[in-house]
C-alpha cells in the first residue's frame, strides 16, 4: 500500500475535482443522516442505540446492496490486486473464488440470523450467543478478541493505504500522516453524526464508484492494451510462467481463500448489516448482488494487472496500479476523465472499508463488552462510550499506520482467525447438544494453529486451523457435556427479567424449529452441491505442466474452467435464494421475542395485527414501514 511512488506524477486538477465533490457529498449525507436519525428517535420508532448502530432496522435493498459490496472490497481490490496479477499471472484470479465461500455461508446463516434477530430483538453480534449458550464470559471473551483483533489490524491497513495514496496523488505535498489524520476526522464526523445510516448511505456513492471503476478495467484491457486474446498470445510466447497451471501449494492456498470467505459474514460490520436489513427481501437481493460481485470487481482488477505484464517493465508489485493509470491518463481527454474516476474509486474503496470497520469495531466493543459489564447503562451512556471507542481506535490506527510496522503477517492471518468463530456461531444453531467449552477449546487451539502456521509460512494455515478446530469440537464435546453439565436457566443469561407483558426472553436453546424449509439451510443437499462447485473452482483437477497452458480466448483453459465452475456455483446460489428465503411475514416478532436495550427499557416484540405490515416495533409498536425506505 505504501510504495506508490509510481503514482507520483502530475495528475492535474481532474482527480482532485472528483475527490473534492466526493468528500462534499459524504459530508452532505452525514448532515442528512443526523436529522433523519434525530427525527426517528424523537418519534419513538427506535432507540438511539438502534438508530446509531443498526440504522433503525431500515436499510432497504438498494442501500444494503451497495453497502455490502463496498464494505466487502477494500482498496486492495483496486490498488493491490493488479499488482498481484502482474506478479503471479492468472493465479491471481483465485480472489474471485473466495466470494463463493462468502455467499455460500451467507445463504446458510444470514436468513437464520435475520429471523432470530427480528424475533428476539438482537442488536449486537453476540446477543445470539448469549441466548444460545448463556452467560459464558470465557467463550464470549474469546469470540470478541478473535473478531476485534483482525478487524483492528485490517483498519490499520486501510489508514496506511489512504495515507500512502493521497501522498502519492499529491506528489508528496500532503504527507501520509496528514492524510491519515484527515481520514480519521472524516470518519469520526460522519459516524458520530449519522451512525450506520450515514455509513451505509455513503457506501452507495463509494460502492457505485467502485463498481463503475472496476468495469472500466475491462475497457482499458480491450481498448488500450489490445484485448485479452492479444495479451494472452504475448504471454504464452514470452511469459509462459504467467499462464501456467498453479503449483500444488498455490492450489491449497486457493482452497484456503474459498474457506476463509465463509468467515466473512462473521465480521461485525457485515453481521450488523444483516440485523439492520429492512426486510427479508432486502437481504435476499443484497446477497444475490454480492454473489455476482467477483465477476464485476475482482476479475477485471486481476486482468488489468495481467495486461500490464508485457506493457510495464520491471515494476514492483505495488507500483503496477500507478504505472497502468499513468498510461491511461496519457491517452487523451476521455481517458484522462475515466482514469481520474478510477483513482477516485481507489480512494473510495479504502474509505468504504475504513468506515465500516470503525463502526463495526465500536459496535462490537460497546454493545458486547461495555453493555454486558454495565447492563443498566442508558442509551446516551452507550453512545458516548461508543464514540470514545471510535476516537481511540482511529487515533491508534493513525499512529500504527505511521509507525511503518510490517503488518503483512497479521493481515495474512486476519480472515483465518475470523473463521475460527464459525463453529460457535453456526454449529450451535443446528447441534442441540453442542457444549460451549468444546467450542472454546476448539477456537483457542485453532487460533494458535493459524498463528504458528502463518509464522512458519506453512501453506493454507486456515485449513489446518479450522480443521483442527472442528475435530476438537467434535471429539471433546461428549466429554465436556459429561464433565461440565450445562443446565440452562433464565438466570444464566445476562438479562433475565421478563418483558412488560410477561413474555419471556427469546431462547434458542431448544432448536427444534429454528431451521425451516423456507431458508436454504433447510436444504443441506442443495447447499452441498454448491460446496462441491466451490471446491471444483480450485484447479486441483488441472495437471501440473512445465510450460504454458492451452489458451481459450486469451485465458488459460484451467482458468476458464475454474471460472465456469465458479459461475455454476453462483447461479445455483441465486436459484436457491429465489426458491428458499424467509417471507417478510415470518420475520414478524413473535411472543417469545424481547431484548433489553441499554437504557433499561424493553422492546416489545409482539405481533400487532395480522393485517399490519411486517415490522420490528420496539417501544410502542410503530411499524417500521412508516419510515422512509433508505
Name the features.
630 residues; mainly alpha; two-stranded antiparallel sheet; 21 helices; disordered N terminus; disordered C terminus
Layout: helices, strands, pairs:
Elements (H helix, E strand, L loop, with lengths): L12 H30 L5 H7 L6 H12 L3 H13 L5 H27 L6 H7 L3 H33 L6 H48 L4 H11 L9 H14 L6 H9 L3 H28 L12 H10 L3 H41 L5 H24 L5 H12 L2 H9 L5 H20 L5 H23 L40 H13 L14 E2 L2 E2 H23 L15 E2 L5 E2 L27
Helix pairs in contact: 1-8, 1-14, 2-8, 3-8, 3-12, 3-14, 4-12, 4-14, 5-10, 5-12, 5-20, 5-21, 6-17, 7-8, 7-14, 7-15, 7-16, 7-18, 8-12, 8-14, 8-15, 11-14, 12-21, 13-14, 14-15, 16-18, 16-19, 18-19, 20-21
Roughly what percent helix?
Answer: 55-70%
Number of DSSP strands?
Answer: 4
Number of helices: 21
Largest sheet: 2 strands, antiparallel
Query: Whole-number average pLDDT?
Result: 81
Strand order of the largest sheet: 1-2
Q: In angstroms, what separates the terminal alpha carbons? A: 34 Å
The general outline is globular
- Class by helix and strand content? mainly alpha
Strand content: under 5%
| SSE ordering | HHHHHHHHHHHHHHHHHHHHEEHEE
Integer-rounded radius of gyration: 24 Å
Low-confidence stretches: 1-10, 489-504, 590-630
